[in-house]
Amino acid sequence: MQFITAGESHGPCLTAIVSGVPAGLSISEDIINSDLARRQSGYGRGGRQFIETDTVQILSGLRFGETLGTPITLQVRNRDWENWTDRMALFGDAPVNLQREVTPRPGHADLVGALKRDRDDCRDILERSSARETAARVAAAGIAREFLAELGVEITSYVTRIGDAAWDEEEPMTRCADYTPLQIEMSDVRCPDAQASEEMKAAIDRAIDDGVSLGGTFRVVACGLVEGLGDYTSGPGRLTSALGGALFSIPAIKGVEFGIGFEAASRPGSEVHDPILLSGRKFTRATNNAGGLEGGMTNGMPLVMTCAMKPIPTMASPLTTVNLDTFEVAEASKERSDVCAVPAAAVVAESEVAFVLADAYLRMFGDSNMTDIKANLEQYKQRLRNRTK
Fold first, then answer.
1. Which of 308, 307, 250, 335 is nearest to 39 (CA)?
2. What gap in Å lies between CA 85 and CA 33, rounded to an integer?
3. d(Cα 104, Cα 100) in Å, to the nearest integer?
4. How far, CA to CA in Å, does 314 sit from each of 64, 73, 79, 194, 212?
5. What is the crossing angle of helices 342-365 and 370-386, to 10°?
């Protein structure tokens, strides 16, 4: 299962095409719209969220609410396009009074993109490199999430740090019932701990007063995964590789850990590797330091990933840059932006993980239709149970 997106931040719409979807999968626009709303939420978001109310329109690949096994086209309209029709027109001449973006922001794609594409207006770069594009990813991932839900897989996320305000979770989860979705979704910063949530909001308030932006960390957890997804025989085939690449594709993500991550480098092996146990007729682990992955494959434990997001490059108090026209020192441009988008990035990360896992299931259990996939999966689970008779 794969997807591709198209569209600019202030263009008419964002579009995604999802291919490799099996036939016979029920799809709900309401569930996709719920994920889009979660992506738009979060304390510290900017004014764009008051303009857009993202909803999806599915244009192909379904009949009577079920997938046909053909590519699915999804569209999310940009309501702000009405305010940008002259500056972002697809055809015709540019307005005489067009204000070009010539003061690239440090930490953004503005300057390097303009040099690479030979453009004299950073607007040509920032429209596509904007995190607005991730709305199309979340919409597309609704297909992958529905597929995984049919197979008993659930993906969630929660925030563990914003700026200097952190929630110190003792260890990566060994089970999936520690926090309810309600605890996470009721928090303005997607943190299940009430006190930590308030501390994170206070950190955002200070950043607003100081005219700066904040990054942070969040955790993505997938539960209900069968053992053996991925492969150990080649680097690209390892699920670790696919998940890492997908998470790093999200704008502003600077670090990804599986399980205890970098902490494993400072511990002896006896405190890192998870002892294997037999519970009933199922192999399990005493701990989950590996984060659900061994040898590039899922091991049946919760898949636990932690991501570090840098602060957004756009700030009310901008940094120094160079004007591309005059080559003189200037202040970086100020787009309408968020102060903190860590909670939103966590939702986007769920989407990226969903696509990787959905593709792994399709590679392992077939990709034609849901009936055969479910039968193949059940046969595989039965074979694993028979190993411990």
1. 250
2. 26
3. 11
4. 44, 32, 22, 29, 8
5. 80
Q: Quick one: pLDDT at residue 16? A: 98
Count of residues making up the chain = 389
pLDDT of 388: 81
State pLDDT tens for residues 24-71: 999 999 999 999 999 988 887 665 555 668 999 999 999 999 999 999
Token pair, residue 301, equals 């434990």
- Please identify every stretch of the chain with a pLDDT value under 50, giving residue numbers as ranges: none
The whole-angstrom separation of Cα 145 and Cα 157 is: 14
The string of DSSP codes covering 180-220 is: -HHHHHTSTTS-S-HHHHHHHHHHHHHHHHHT--B-EEEEE
pTM: 0.94
> Measured between alpha carbons, how far is 30 from 18 in angstroms, rounded to an integer?
18
Distance CA 370, CA 147 (A): 9
